[in-house]
Amino acid sequence: MKSNKKILIGLSLATSLSACAVTAYQPRPLNPDQTYPSFQDRSVATPGLRDFMAAHGQTLWPVQTWGLKELTLLALYFNPELRVAQAEARVAASQVATAAPQAGYTVSPRAEHHSAGAPSSPWSVGIAVEWPLTRTSKRSAATEQAMQIAQAAELQAGIIGWKIRHEVRAALHARAAGEQFMQSLSEESAARRHMLQLMERRRDLGLLSGHEASAAHLKLLELEQTRSEAQTRILDAAHRLADVTGLPASTVKALALSFAELDEALPLPEQPAREALLNRLDLRRKLMEFAAADAAVKLAVSRQSPDISLSPGYLWDQSDNVWSLAANLLIPSDQSAFITEAVARRELAAQSFLQLQIQITQETETAADLVQTAREQAEIFQRASEQYALKEARLTRQLEAGYADRVEQVEAQIEALTARRSLAQSRARLQQALGSLEDVVQRPLSGFPLTRDEILNSPLARQ
After folding, report:
1. SS3 of residue 311 by DSSP
2. Predicted confidence band at 275 (pLDDT cuts at 50, 70, 90)?
3. How many CA atoms lie within 13 A of 376 on its CB side?
């Protein structure tokens, strides 16, 4: 009898322990006093960055000048928002394995004591096992729903990656436009100082009214105010670049930037709306969300079926081996309300997809029109700048020949500088419009291709 009890107890424990693998707890400390200094220590010399950039075609190291491509890779490596999106994608992927109902079982040791005398022993010992049988339709529907949600989370990481690329381009463009504007203002400021000196000299000689000299002085002061505002915009662009790259502002300010890619002639898509509908990751994510909602309908429908569990058992009773087998049938409650809700959510997902599709088409058409308008305006300012440059050259020759005075020549110089600044601003608006079109279509018009897999399979994504 004692032997049989030990065997049954050992069998019960072994069955229970074998049902699951034991994983040891692994601590993951998070200390704010350590995370902040680690952020301050980030730099372009961080271990791992070189390998990451080399894997994406950046073979020259160290990087001498940081253009659109290099800064985009830098941001993909460090940006904290992308790290969060990657972590969320990994969480969603891990939930696929746990989405379906688990086919675990319950082990129940049994012991009975008989008050009446027995020929052998008053004790009866045994074991019972309850084994649920989950329908395949439920498991497949739950797994399908979790897989679609996981793919949508991956696409969200890709969306964040594209957003980073767009913000890098916008910040770099703002920095380039700001520096060019600042240079133009400095040149015009020097010319206006020269003009003010000439006018004050003529005023002192009685050849010019004091009002004209005062107006020139006020114009110079306005120009200095504009320079101060331009300097603030350059500083703001530097901080925007630091935000998107995930690096300290002091580190980003020390980088030697290149704006060459922003001056390239960008080929426009022939059918921007069609390309947008094919490329947009948020539209693909909406499709995944609809598929997940459809799987939820399948799951709600499958829950109308009853659940079944088998309960085999064994009992050693008064020297008698007693075997048993039972089946339990769990009749579900009315699932019509849950099915109605799931169908409504699926319809909501469908309408959300259609809404985004229409919105993308409208945004693409608007962005393409803005690019066309900006190009036409840039051409107008180009012709005007050429005319004022010719006028400046003509008056310079006349001054050298003695047919024009210095004031006329400086006035023509200021007009030419103003026209060049207006041309530069029109080209900046064109680049901004191109960046908006690029963002709507989600296909780089310059630089390098950026795909979801490049983001998700980066070394950073596996950290």
Report:
1. strand
2. confident
3. 6
What is the four-CA torsion angle of 153, 156, 157, 161, rounded to 10 degrees? 170
The kind and range of the H/E element at 321 are: strand 320-330
Encoded tokens for 390: 């010719």
Cβ partners under 8 Å of residue 172, min gap 6? 67, 68, 71, 237, 241, 257, 259, 262
Residue holding tokens 């050259």? 393
Extents of the domains making up the chain: 2-12+65-445
DSSP of 207-240:
SS-HHHHHHHHHHHHHHHHHHHHHHHHHHHHHHH
Q: Mean pLDDT for the chain?
A: 83
- pTM for this entry: 0.78
pLDDT tens digits, one per residue of 202-228:
877 777 777 777 888 888 888 888 888
Q: Return d(Cα 209, Cα 220) in angstroms, integer.
A: 18
List pLDDT tens digits, range 398-433. Answer: 988 888 788 889 999 999 999 999 999 999 999 899
Q: Which CATH class is domain 2-12+65-445?
A: mainly alpha
* Cα 142 from Cα 300, distance rounded (Å): 10
At residue 122, the 3 state secondary structure works out as coil
Q: Which two tokens stand for residue 19?
A: 């049902």
